[in-house]
């Protein structure tokens, strides 16, 4: 049997010692220090920003007139086509005029009788005035003749007013369009009985070109807008309005902001604003839902950050991670005024030139030193 050399035995013993030390407790000493966290940052640069608000609303007709009868009777004729455009003064319905024509004839006869009586009273009063001068009749008879003449004059005036009333009622048997516009469906047909000033309308006429879009905005948003304009942070916009239909498509014609309501709705805390929109093709109909994108104004020094850079604390307040000139990261409370696409508009808490962390800020505690990498370099 061959003997093992001494050198090989020594090497085997040393290897066993190394293996035993590796399987046992590690040697004492401090762990190696971790590397500096790398944070992607962006430098805030002010930019010119046109602000707009997208507000919900309902379409309303510029003019809406309900057709109701002012006299009662049977409908003899309907003289329009439902859904067509009618002109002001155009005949819509004809009520049977027979009884009203008879009333006019009776009033004319009453007027003629009153005028004849007045003529007789005038001649009698004239003769009495001549006779009383020669003392052929008493003064009492002359005064009675003058009173009879005045009464005859009043009877003529009353008969003339009655005739005028009957003629007006006869005219009311012709129901004409009060305005020019598109007329809807008719609630009655020929042969139906209608009454004066009834509750239900016979038809409705609406002017659809142009048309109104009534939208609502919160009173707090309106106050913030007025405050920004007063402080000079924002310049007035042109009040140009873009319309979005209920299916999300854009309406071809731009609108114009007409006015804002002078009071706030106490139940909703909103203010109603009216937008005037051209409607040449009749696409917008009263009652339709639409959204108005209103240009409010222009911010000359707007500060925008991606939404991923803004976080919330336990109380829900917005904050960003800012990297200072000393390379240390800190949490900075900010005011996120509104969302602009995928960015937040910051109105306070930061200034132009500040470096804001976009990614990697979760790896560093506030006050820790970080390695700031510009976003453009990180993208490359």
UniProtKB/TrEMBL annotation:
Multidrug resistance protein MdtA-like alpha-helical hairpin domain ranges (all copies): 104-173
Subcellular location: Cell envelope
Molecular-function annotations in GO: transmembrane transporter activity
UniProt domain Multidrug resistance protein MdtA-like C-terminal permuted SH3: residue ranges: 301-362
Coiled coil regions in record: 104-169
GO cellular component, one term: plasma membrane
Predominant subcellular localization, coarse grouping: other
Record Pfam families: Beta-barrel_RND, BSH_RND, HH_MFP_RND, RND-MFP_C
Ranges of residues in domain Multidrug resistance protein MdtA-like beta-barrel: 210-297
Any one GO biological process: response to antibiotic
Keywords linked to the UniProt accession: Coiled coil, Signal
Signal sequence bounds: 1-21
Domain spans labelled Multidrug resistance protein MdtA-like barrel-sandwich hybrid: 65-206
Family the entry assigns: Belongs to the membrane fusion protein (MFP) (TC 8.A.1) family.
Matches recorded under NCBIfam families: RND_mfp
The protein's name in its UniProt record: Membrane fusion protein (Multidrug efflux system)
């Amino acid at each position: 049997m061959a003997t093992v050399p001494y050198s090989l035995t020594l090497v085997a013993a040393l290897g066993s010692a190394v293996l035993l030390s590796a399987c046992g407790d590690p040697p004492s000493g401090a762990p190696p220090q971790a590397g500096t966290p790398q944070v992607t940052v962006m430098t805030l640069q002010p930019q010119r920003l046109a602000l707009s608000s997208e507000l919900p609303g309902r379409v309303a007709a510029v003019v809406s007139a309900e057709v109701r009868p002012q006299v009662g009777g049977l409908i003899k004729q309907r003289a329009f086509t439902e859904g067509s455009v009618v002109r002001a003064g155009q005949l819509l319905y004809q009520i049977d005029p027979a009884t009203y024509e008879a009333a006019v004839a009776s009033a004319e006869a009453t007027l003629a009788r009153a005028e004849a009586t007045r003529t007789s009273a005038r001649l009698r009063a004239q003769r009495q005035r001549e006779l009383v001068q020669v003392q052929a009749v008493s003064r009492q008879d002359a005064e009675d003749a003058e009173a009879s003449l005045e009464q005859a004059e009043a009877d003529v005036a009353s008969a003339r007013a009655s005739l005028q009333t009957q003629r007006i009622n006869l005219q009311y048997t012709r129901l004409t369009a009060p305005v020019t516009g598109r007329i809807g469906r008719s609630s009655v047909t020929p042969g139906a009985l209608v009454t004066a000033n009834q509750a239900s309308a016979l038809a409705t006429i609406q002017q659809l070109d142009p048309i109104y879009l009534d939208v609502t905005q919160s009173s707090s948003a309106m106050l913030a807008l007025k405050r920004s304009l007063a402080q000079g942070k924002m310049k007035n916009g042109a009040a140009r309005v873009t319309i979005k239909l209920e299916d999300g498509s854009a309406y071809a014609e731009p609108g114009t902001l007409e006015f804002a309501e002078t009071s706030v709705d106490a139940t909703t805390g909103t203010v109603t604003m009216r937008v005037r929109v051209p409607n040449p093709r009749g696409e917008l109909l009263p009652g339709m839902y639409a959204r108005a994108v209103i240009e409010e104004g222009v911010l000359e020094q707007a500060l925008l950050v991606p939404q991923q850079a803004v976080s919330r604390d336990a109380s829900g307040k917005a904050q960003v991670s800012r990297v200072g000139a000393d390379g240390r990261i800190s949490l900075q409370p900010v005011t996120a005024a509104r969302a602009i696409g995928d960015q937040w508009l910051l109105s306070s808490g930061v200034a132009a030139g500040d470096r804001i962390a976009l990614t990697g800020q979760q790896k560093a505690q506030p006050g820790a030193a970080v390695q700031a990498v510009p976003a453009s370099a990180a993208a490359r």
